[in-house]
């Protein structure tokens, strides 16, 4: 038995992730020559059975031959010439049961096989009918035959009629005494259920409670039955298929014992392509009677396993964790360890090609597969997991073998791991040994193979297995022997940087660093140092490289992990800062600048000095660098103290691994000033983060507190050697932190004044500076003097400036500040008014006299107020300076547009407005409307009414600025509607004359800018005429609906409008240009004139009652007028057609009214409401057509109507053929 196929292995819990099955030939067959020869000698093969080391083969001739595993004949049995249909070998391999197509069952003792030991003959139907016996009928083939339990004379059988029997074969006084029990099925059933398989529970390696019940499993196409024969026959369990299937199968696995654990029996079964499992376990049942012992009960639980793509025909257990599933097209392995299919392969075409009438018999015994097909016997073995690796090795394809081995180690191509232990840990150990063997074989051909790919695979293997002994041992020495170390170390580099190899040998990392030094790739060197255990580094090699190439992160890492020195790397950077030329020379002329001679350029060197800030960020917070992990508390305190001692030292000091750290000059705090001179902003950001840690708070610790650091910074800030930008940044830092930690940082008045001066001396407005000053003032208030207010104004700190003006009660300046919008806060209308209102509600400005004193200032600031905020100015004037409104209006007169925006707030389009505005304001408003926004004039007139404005002034301004719609409105309200019509006629004729002048200038023949301007001018005139006509239509409609206007006057108005339009169209009708292009100016003018006429007629027809206007009289006047003006009828045809259409529409409406009056409308509406409430319905009659009275399935009607298969249903419940429904009127 192979190791991987052993059932005595502990199970793993089911995996939660479904494994994708891999395609792999896991079965390998060989022909059994001796058995095949014997089969050919005995005739055609019919069935087989393998068990107990024996192989029984049945033939069509009725003979049965038993072979052992060496293919030697054990015995031959033949008691009938009927075809052998099924075979079974007993548990102890001493008895053989043979079923025949005749219905006979023979039991042979294989040590005396010449004569049957027992015989179960077919039963006579008369005996069955009389109830005196049970059994199979004659000529009904036995399909399944199995031994039950350990007894040699207890068998179960099924036949082709769907009957299942249990036979207990015995002898009494030398005479046969058989007891037969019908387990399932009916005699002479009209539709017998085919029993696909029947199997009793086999004996396992230990006794189980289920053995006492002698369970038998029967599977049909639609259900599974578990029947217990003891103590009395009954059904214990049923399971139904999801749907009827053409295939079904089952296979028992008995109870086993392994590794001190008991595994209960399992039954795998399938319906079609659905695979399930039934687990049988015993439970303790508490006795109901006191004093009696507890009994055992049986528990059966079903589980759905998976679904295959093709129907399942056979199931065979390989061991408890692996099930062979045979479908119609493939063999598949279901692994219970991962609860999914793991491997599959198609049927072997040479062995198992399925042909009709030539079935395949397959059985597994002790992990060996036996198959009989095409009258040939085969024995198969499960292919081990490394068979493909062995094949590649034999072909010397070691690189491909390594690739496949890595996949197997990772589990991606392993499948069920046949031949491997069950536990994943043990599997990896076996595969790892196999990989090492392949690697050693590949090293022998290193000179002839791809050395880069080989080391890549070997490194991948070492990383996967986390075992680098072979990699850094034999493999490294082989590459060194072949002078390929550079290839070896370059492949390791990628894994080192990714953190997969932390402890390479020192020699390997030396060679790798040497190679990168030769290629001048120092960034990679730094990454290598950071990702390697520092104790694997050659410090004599690493430290000089880090110092010379400014690899400060790597240097800090090495000093921290190896020497526990946290100051020397910072001191080295400070030393370079002192020695590298900067923008400023040394303060003391007696000292000369010392230059560093290294391979770094000045720019690269200065850029690398920025590494000091992340290092300080970690050290001042008690963290490791660069991992940013926390030290233990005591160690963290030591780290912070050491860095503080160096950084905030008043004088030059020594580092642990250096002599005196050089300084720029002999002034105090040399190192702090050096960093501030280099770049103060990131350093102060570091201090901001450090202040948030506990190391600057706890006074019990021997560390500098926040107050100590602030005092130091203030002392440095008083020194004149620092640039102004540094002074400013220091002031911002102190100001922000004074508000952030007010209980720890308390500043004196002089310090606050110094910081105030530093922040407000900034030449450019800086929001950060303003915020810092706000922080300072929130924690340390100061008095706002005249000088300080000027400084705030100069710096542009408007929020603080506004607060200062409020506190010092400088209201005029505050008002000017708001009106000029110096802080840019007036983003939308209403905000200026709100801010000014806040001033006038203050106690000192509540009186009107006090406000009047500020009017001159208010007036002087008007020119600085943005245009969108002039509406706020109007609100301010109305509320606070109501008596000075004329002065404001006069002041804005020089800018008409701003005056218009100002007045707009006084005239709002609402119907509930009271006329409180003075007449002067109204006249100016009308003038500005005509100039700035003519389209708003008519809505204003409608909103306020004709009595509100001076109509004569309106007419004058509208006429001056050519606002004709407003002019007509005002003339009508003055009772001069006829004059308005005269103005309309004059406007239309002037437009026609101007258009002809432009056409005479040849505007359609030119494409220059002047011609385009002329065309645009004509279009604008048409737009003005359209507005005038719209107002004329409105006035006509209003007079038509007015009770005070006479009919003759209304007729006259409509006639004037229509006659003007006819004359306009006639003016553009020019026979010489009748064929002008559609985009010409003449075509455009004709189109506009016709559109105007259509709008006039639409308004007349839809808005004027028929009794008010007589179309006949109006048409008569138009015809008389056009006849005198030599206008052709075709030009007024549109008017005639519109009138006729109106008459037709009114006639239709009258006819509808008459029909409704003549009919009972109330009854009709009630009937329609009732039908709508009921919905559509089908009458409860025979299903026939309401037209042809033929049934819907009548073939004659089908031939008559091609579409008679479709039915039409009406709301009234009538049904028609689709063809018939077209021939009738369906209501």
TrEMBL record:
Matches recorded under Pfam families: Beta-prop_VPS8, TPR_Vps8
Transmembrane segments: none
An example Gene Ontology CC term for this record: HOPS complex
InterPro entries named in the record: Vps41/Vps8 (IPR045111), Vps8_central_dom (IPR025941), WD40/YVTN_repeat-like_dom_sf (IPR015943), WD40_repeat_dom_sf (IPR036322), WD40_rpt (IPR001680)
GO BP term, pick one: protein targeting to vacuole
Protein name: Vacuolar protein sorting-associated protein 8 central domain-containing protein
Similarity remark: Belongs to the VPS8 family.
Superkingdom assignment: Eukaryota
SMART domains: WD40 (SM00320)
Span of domain Vacuolar protein sorting-associated protein 8 central: 487-691
């Amino acid at each position: 038995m192979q190791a991987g196929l052993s059932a005595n292995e502990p199970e793993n819990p089911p995996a939660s992730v479904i494994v994708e099955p891999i395609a792999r030939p896991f079965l390998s067959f060989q022909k059994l020559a001796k058995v095949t020869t014997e089969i050919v000698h005995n005739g055609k093969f019919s069935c087989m059975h393998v068990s107990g080391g024996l192989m029984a083969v049945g033939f069509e001739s009725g003979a049965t031959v038993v072979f052992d595993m060496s293919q030697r004949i054990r015995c031959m049995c033949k008691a009938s010439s009927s075809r052998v249909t099924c075979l079974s070998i007993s548990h102890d391999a001493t008895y053989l049961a043979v079923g025949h197509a005749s219905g006979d069952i023979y039991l042979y003792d294989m040590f005396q096989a010449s004569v049957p030991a027992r015989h179960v003959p077919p039963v006579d139907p008369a005996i069955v009918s009389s109830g005196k016996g049970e059994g199979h009928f004659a000529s009904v083939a036995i399909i399944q035959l199995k031994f039950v339990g350990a007894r040699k004379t207890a068998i179960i059988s099924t036949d082709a009629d769907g009957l299942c029997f249990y036979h207990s074969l015995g002898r009494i006084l030398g005479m046969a005494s058989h007891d037969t029990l019908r387990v399932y099925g009916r005699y002479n059933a009209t539709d017998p259920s085919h029993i696909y398989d029947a199997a009793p529970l086999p004996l396992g390696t230990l006794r189980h409670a289920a053995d006492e019940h002698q369970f038998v499993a029967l599977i049909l196409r639609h259900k599974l039955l578990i029947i217990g024969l003891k103590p009395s026959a009954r059904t214990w369990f049923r399971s139904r298929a999801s749907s009827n299937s053409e295939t079904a199968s089952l296979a028992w696995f008995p109870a086993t014992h392994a590794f001190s654990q008991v595994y209960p029996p399992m039954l795998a079964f399938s319906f079609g392509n659905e695979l399930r499992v039934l687990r049988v376990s015993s439970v303790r049942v508490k006795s109901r009677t006191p004093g009696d012992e507890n009994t055992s009960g049986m528990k059966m639980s079903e589980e759905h396993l998976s679904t295959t793509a093709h129907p399942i025909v056979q199931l065979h257990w390989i061991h408890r964790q692996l099930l062979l599933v045979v479908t119609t097209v493939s063999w598949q392995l279901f692994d219970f360890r991962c609860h999914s299919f793991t491997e599959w392969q198609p049927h072997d075409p040479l062995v198992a090609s399925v042909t009709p009438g030539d079935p395949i018999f397959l059985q597994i015994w002790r992990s060996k597969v036996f198959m009989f097909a095409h009258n040939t016997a085969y024995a198969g073995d499960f292919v081990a997991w490394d068979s493909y690796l062995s094949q590649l090795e034999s072909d010397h394809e070691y690189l491909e073998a390594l690739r496949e081995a890595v996949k197997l180690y990772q589990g991606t191509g392993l499948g069920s791991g046949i031949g491997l232990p069950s536990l994943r840990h043990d599997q990896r150990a076996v595969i790892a040994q196999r990989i090492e063997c392949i690697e050693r074989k590949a090293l022998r051909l290193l000179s002839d193979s791809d050395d880069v790919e080989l080391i890549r695979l070997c490194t991948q293997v070492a990383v996967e297995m986390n075992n680098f002994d072979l990699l850094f041992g034999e493999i490294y020495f082989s590459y060194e022997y072949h002078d390929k170390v550079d290839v070896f170390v370059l492949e390791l580099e990628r894994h080192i940087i990714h953190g997969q190899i932390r402890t390479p040998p020192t020699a390997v990392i030396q060679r790798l660093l040497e190679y990168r030094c030769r290629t001048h790739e120092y960034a990679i060197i730094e990454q290598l140092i950071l990702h390697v255990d520092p104790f694997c580094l050659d410090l004599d090699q690493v430290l000089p490289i880090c110092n010379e190439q400014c690899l400060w992160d790597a240097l800090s890492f090495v000093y921290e992990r190896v020497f526990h020195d946290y100051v020397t790397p910072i001191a080295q950077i400070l030393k370079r800062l002192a020695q590298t030329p900067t923008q400023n020379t040394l303060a003391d002329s007696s000292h000369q600048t010392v230059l560093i001679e290294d391979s770094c350029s000045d720019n690269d060197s200065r850029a690398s000095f920025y590494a000091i800030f992340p290092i300080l960020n970690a050290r001042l917070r008690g963290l490791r660098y660069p991992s940013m992990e926390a030290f233990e508390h005591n160690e963290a305190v030591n780290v912070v103290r050491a860095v503080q001692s160096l950084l905030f030292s008043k004088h030059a000091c020594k580092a642990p691994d250096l002599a005196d750290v050089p300084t720029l000059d002999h002034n105090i705090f040399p190192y702090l000033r050096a960093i501030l001179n280099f770049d103060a902003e990131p350093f102060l950001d570091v201090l901001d983060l450090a202040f948030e840690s506990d190391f600057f708070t706890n006074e019990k610790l021997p560390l500098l507190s926040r107050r100590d650091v602030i005092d130091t910074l203030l002392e440095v800030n008083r020194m004149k050697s620092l640039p102004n930008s540094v002074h400013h940044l220091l002031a911002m830092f102190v100001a922000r932190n004074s508000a952030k930690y007010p209980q720890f940082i308390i500043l004196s008045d002089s310090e606050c004044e110094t910081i105030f001066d530093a922040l407000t001396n900034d030449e450019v407005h800086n929001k950060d500076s303003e915020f810092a000053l706000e922080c300072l003032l929130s924690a340390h208030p100061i008095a706002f003097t005249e000088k300080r207010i000027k400084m705030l104004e100069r710096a542009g700190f408007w929020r603080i400036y506004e607060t200062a003006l409020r506190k010092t009660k400088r209201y005029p300046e505050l008002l000017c500040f708001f009106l000029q919008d110096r802080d840019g806060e007036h983003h939308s209308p209403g905000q200026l008014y709100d801010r000014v209102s806040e001033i006038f509600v203050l106690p000192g400005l509540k009186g009107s006299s006090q406000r009047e004193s500020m009017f001159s200032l208010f007036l002087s600031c008007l020119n600085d107020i943005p245009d969108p905020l002039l509406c706020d100015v109007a609100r301010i004037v109305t509320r606070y300076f109501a008596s000075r409104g004329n002065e404001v209006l006069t002041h804005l007169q020089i800018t008409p547009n701003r005056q218009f925006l100002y007045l707009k707030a006084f005239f709002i389009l609402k119907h509930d407005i009271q006329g409180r505005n003075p007449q002067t304001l109204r006249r100016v408003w009308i003038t500005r409307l005509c100039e700035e926004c003519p389209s708003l004039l008519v809505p204003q007139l409608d909103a306020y009414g004709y009595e509100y404005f001076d109509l004569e002034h309106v007419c004058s301004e509208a006429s001056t600025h050519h606002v004709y719609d407003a002019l007509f409105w005002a003339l009508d309200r003055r009772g001069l509607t006829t004059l308005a019509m005269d103005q309309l006629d004059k406007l239309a004729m002037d437009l026609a004359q101007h258009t002809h002048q432009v056409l005479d200038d040849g505007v359609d023949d030119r494409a220059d800018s002047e011609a385009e301007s002329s065309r645009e001018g004509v279009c604008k005139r048409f737009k003005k005429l359209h507005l005038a006509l719209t107002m004329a239509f409105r006035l006509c409609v209003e007079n038509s609906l007015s009770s005070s206007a006479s009919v003759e006057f209304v007729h006259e108005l409509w006639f004037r409008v229509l006659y003007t339009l006819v004359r306009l169209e006639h003016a553009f009708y020019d026979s010489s240009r009748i064929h002008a292009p559609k985009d010409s100016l003449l075509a455009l003018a004709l189109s506009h004139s016709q559109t105007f006429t259509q709008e006039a007629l639409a308004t007349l027809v839809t808005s004027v009652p028929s009794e008010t206007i007589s179309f006949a009289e109006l048409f008569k006047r138009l015809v008389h007028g056009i006849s005198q003006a030599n206008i052709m009828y075709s030009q007024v045809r549109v008017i005639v057609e519109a009138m006729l259409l109106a008459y037709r529409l009114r006639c239709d409406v009258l006819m509808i009214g008459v029909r409704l009056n003549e009919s009972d409308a109330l009854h009709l509406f009630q009937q329609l409401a009732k039908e709508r409430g009921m919905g559509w319905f089908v009458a409860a009659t025979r299903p026939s057509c309401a037209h042809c009275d033929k049934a819907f399935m009548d073939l004659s009607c089908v031939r008559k109507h091609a579409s008679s298969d479709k039915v039409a249903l009406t709301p009234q419940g009538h049904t028609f053929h689709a063809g018939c429904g077209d021939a009738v009127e369906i209501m």
